[in-house]
Design goal:
By secondary structure, the protein is mostly helical. The protein has helices spanning 2-48, 63-79, 98-105, and strands at residues 53-55, 58-60. The longest helix is centred in the N-terminal third of the chain and has 47 residues, at 2-48.
Length: 113
């Protein structure tokens, strides 16, 4: 029993030491990681930036016109109601009989509770 408690204490101390080492390592290298991740984000933004759009068959690079065209596309897309129509005329749906309907809609008895 004493050996188990000592082993547990040693393992806890080892875990604590490893956590502290990891924290020190992060503090030492954290700035380089941050710089790396920020550079990746900047690169992604540049790559995803819309610089020109096709307006009536010709490319437009004016930032104000590009911005307005993108806005108009989104306004049109999200303001137009979407209607879905389904043709259900040739589908046979199962129906229940009057007897089954009575069983489903009757009051619940104390015995069922």
């Amino acid at each position: 029993m004493k050996l188990l408690s000592e082993l547990k204490l040693v393992l806890e101390n080892e875990r604590s030491l490893l956590n502290q080492k990891a924290r020190v390592s992060w503090l030492e290298q954290g700035n380089t990681n941050t710089k790396y991740f920020h550079s990746r984000i900047r690169w992604r933004r540049i790559k995803n930036e819309l610089k020109r759009v096709d307006l009536n068959g010709s490319w437009c690079e004016d930032p104000c016109k590009v911005r307005e065209e993108v806005r108009q596309v989104f306004v049109k897309h999200f303001s137009t109601p979407k209607y879905f129509s389904f043709n259900l005329q040739n589908i046979d749906f199962p129906t229940i009989s009057n007897k089954e309907n009575m069983l489903l809609t009757k009051d619940i008895s104390n015995q069922e509770i």
